DUF1754-domain-containing protein (Lobosporangium transversale), 110 residues
Amino acid sequence: MGDYETTGGSLRFKGGGGITKKKKKKSEKLDPSKVKATLEAKESTPPPSKPIKVIEKTAAELRFEEIQKKRQEEKVLKSAMKSHKEKVAELNRKLEEMTEHYDIPKVGPG
C-alpha cells in the first residue's frame, strides 16, 4: 500500500516527483543597428529566381467563361427587374405546385 497511500489532500502520481512548472524563456532584446544591417543585407541580395508557370486557356475554355459571364449578367438583370411583390407571388405559385411532403398518403378503400 506504500505507493498508493494517501492521508488526504490531492492525489499523487506513483513516480513521486510532483509537478514541475516550465520556466519561461527570456526574450532577447533586438538591437536596432543589427536589425537595419540584416534588412539591408537581405535587400542587396537578389531573390532567387523561380520559373513562373503561365497557364494559357484554350479557345473553348475562353468561350465557356464568356458564355457563363453573359448568363450571369442576364440572370442578375432578370432578378433586378422583378419587384418584391412579383417575387413573393412567384414563390407562392411554386409552393402551391409542390406536392406536400408531410401529408399522410391515402391508401386503400374508404
Remarks:
- DSSP finds three helices and no strands in the chain.
- The radius of gyration is 37 Å.
